[in-house]
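Worked example

This section walks through a single chain of length 451. The input is the sequence exactly as stored; nothing has been trimmed or padded.
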Amino acid sequence: MRDLAIAILLIVLSGVIASIYNSYLPLHGDEAYYWLWSHHLQTGYYDHPPMIAFMIYLSNFISETEWGVRLINVASMSVAALVIYRITQKMSDSKSALTSVIIFLSVLLVHAGYTITTTDSPLILFYSLALLAFYNVLTRAKVIDFILLGVWLGLMMLSKYTAILFVVSLLLFVLLRRRDLLSEWRSYLSASIAFVIILPMLWWNYEHNWISFAFQASHGGEGEFALNYAGEFIGSQFLIFTPIFAWVLFASMFKHRLYYRDDRLFMLSIFTLTPLLFFLYKSFFIHIELNYSAPAYIGAAIIVALALRDRKKTLVAGVVLALVLSVVARVTLLFYLPQVQDRMYGNKEAVQMLQTHRIDSDAIYADHLTLASLITYYSPDRPEVRIPTSTRFSQYDMWDSGSKFKAGLYLSDGDDLEELEELFERVELIDKISFVLKDNKSKSYYLYRVY
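Given that input, the structure is written out below as tokens.
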């Protein structure tokens, strides 16, 4: 009970600190985009499944400020940490369980997960819950375990399409170690429950010609072979999980061959390696964002905790290094935002500039989905914004009625005068705001009145 109490205290402290920290950071454009979804609830969206919109919809009842939008991060990471404790405790003991929580909460990847709202937040939440349910299926096999596995699988599939990697991992383990589950009727109960849960999302895609699936297939499509992307991906894993923990993880799985010792460790290895190997393969062709491989580190935290059970010095060194990297990253993001994340910088000020020129009859336009979402979020009356100029297809195009453009204001982060003149009768630049970024580069916002 003492170890559990300490784990809960650490999780609560992490959540409180993250919420306070999050209140000082302006929204990223993607976060505003997902927030906008929460005011247009659907069973599917062009870019992603709907879970992030549903979760932000619930957090809106608490607060729609920056920290409120990011509450789903705090809740998802906190629950995932508690689930990691439970899985580790079942596999070993409460001491190792507490260690796994400390490892999970200390690494840079999780600190980033506590901060910026992405579809990985609900994915990590339901990924961890599904992993616990699957472990229970393997060890005690009660009907409730199969039911919960189906529920968490379904909700995970509503979170992000890469949840399919969990299913791949599960099937690999079953085929290699537990083929008896293929003849178990309760396994098909799990599959049926998951299917029923994702059916509305599938139906939305069917009604829209599978547009969301097509976008994700093209979005993650292969480019030209490039070793630099793969090198960046491999190096980043040692950064986000720290060099010490990453070394212990890979040494445990390959050098010490955990999968030969114990089915439980083999299960964790499968659920860790499958997403890592998949994104490693993709990294030979396209740039992979750091958060893509996040679910792999749920099982990884447990593997490392078990491997370091009798290696206290290595554990302490890993935690200290992880916290140093995480604190440096947080401080840098908070105080040097223009240099490290310029996409989050200046947007609020640009919207304020727009508000000073706005009159009641103005229609509002923007050049991109992120800026359009930020205008709605940071404007007191939450206006509808349209995107008249050429940009990538998004949910805005699906919402657009196709009605004629009216007179109003157009905000962009580039000079769009020529394209606007083809769309409107008259266009005039009425204001501009610029910011200095790193290496003396600047970022400018242009405000046009269009007639």
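What to look for: The chain has a mean pLDDT of 94.
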